[in-house]
Amino acid sequence: MLFDTHVHLNADQFADDLEETITRAREAGVKYMTVVGFDRKTIPLAIQIAEDNDHIYAAVGWHPVDAIDMTDEDLQWIEELSSHPKVVAIGEMGLDYHWDKSPADVQKEVFRKQIQLAKKVNMPIIIHNREATDDIVEILKEENAAEVGGIMHCYSGPVETAKECIDMNFMISLGGPVTFKNAKLPKEVAEAIDLDHLLVETDCPFLAPHPNRGKRNEPAYVKLVAEQVAEIKGLTYEEVSKRTTENALQFFRIKS
Predict the structure, then answer these.
(1) Annotated binding residue at 227?
(2) pLDDT digits (tens, 9 = 90+) for 225-236
(3) Is residue 153 a known part of a binding site?
(4) In this structure, are residues 7 and 34 in contact, taking their beta carbons and an 8 Å threshold?
(5) Can you give the pLDDT at residue 165?
(6) Cα(2)–Cα(241) distance, rounded to whole angstroms?
(7) I need a surface site. Which of 84, 206, 227, 253 has the fewest CB within 10 A?
(8) 72 appears as a binding residue in the annotation
(9) Which residue(s) pair with 173 in the sheet?
């Protein structure tokens, strides 16, 4: 039994075969999923998919790449949606310095507002980080994000930063890159971080794990991530799948 903690089944790439994708996931042992909505288009779709399917949940937030588009009304909308029975987290949110659509100062402001909102509604947060680790950690500390905790989604940073985040009540979620031959840091994190602090995810349709790298990713492939973590840690696949699922259920406050 697996919990894919970060999927984008609300993406256009799944528009033609959503039901079949979910069926393949179930057949691969993926019982639970969190569909992450991050803008005006994907948030309603995330909630709709969660409403239509048992054991599928939603997260609602605003992606940093599109921070410049977020209005006060959007923030209010996210707050209202946070009370939906299948919404389990606020996010994804964070900083992304790879793309230049939204200036860094705008991204930081929107990030802080969403952390403050999560604290107001007492919900954990999901963090998107691309080339912005130092600023993300600084803002999490300044905003006392430890009060609600969260997930470092598709974590690719060093072990030391992972431990710093764990100290702030964050889980470390590993995705497809942990299976890449040249991905040194995720493998080091998988080895060094105790299983109690780890989650698994696909971030589908992106970052498909080996041997499907370069293809469309999907939730069924989270099994490949869990198998790789088990191999790195010298544990059985069954132990990793069981523990990471228990971790996710506890984190999202879901009664199994």
Answers:
(1) no
(2) 999 999 999 999
(3) yes
(4) yes
(5) 98
(6) 5
(7) 253
(8) no
(9) 199
> What's the whole-number mean pLDDT along residues 34-47?
98
Stretch (H or E) spanning 60: strand 56-60
Q: 40: which 2 tokens?
A: 């005006």
Report pTM: 0.97
6 is in an annotated binding site: yes
Q: How many CA atoms lie within 13 A of 114 on its CB side?
A: 37
Is 55 annotated to bind a ligand? Reply is no
With 0-12 / 13-18 / 19 or more C-beta atoms within 10 angstroms meaning exposed / middle / buried, residue 204 is buried
| Arithmetic mean of pLDDT, 137-150 | 98
Calpha distance 40→254 (Å, rounded): 26
Look up residue 29 and give its amino acid.
G
Strand-strand pairing, 150-152 and 30-37: unpaired
Q: Evaluate whether 205 touches 13 at the Cβ level (below 8 Å).
A: yes
DSSP 169: T
203 is in an annotated binding site: yes
